[in-house]
Design a protein that fits this description.
single chain, 90 residues, alpha+beta, four-stranded mixed β-sheet, globular
Length: 90
């Protein structure tokens, strides 16, 4: 388990299965993250889309301001052993 010191932001929707999977992985890693629900928040969705280079799907995940992508990219980083260092960096 990683004790997260990184700032993690995840844009989500309550009806999104990929959002739930991404949050589960982050919780298993022992992280604390800021969840931004964009389901009925047009301004939040616009902010997410701008930050994510035009991507409009959820989740969109940022670690220390770096755009990670969505659930698949998060799990790929984990399978390659690259997620833990991102979560633990100061």
């Amino acid at each position: 388990m990683v004790l997260s010191v990184a700032r993690i932001e995840i844009y989500t929707s309550p009806i999104c299965g990929y959002c739930h999977r991404a949050k589960q992985l982050l919780q298993r890693k022992g992280t604390v993250f800021e969840e931004i629900d964009v389901f009925a928040d047009g301004v939040g969705r616009q902010q997410m889309t701008a930050r994510a280079g035009g991507r409009q799907t959820v989740p969109q995940i940022f670690i220390d301001g770096r755009h990670i992508g969505g659930c698949d990219e998060l799990y790929e980083l984990d399978s390659q052993g690259e997620l833990d260092p991102l979560l633990a960096r100061a």
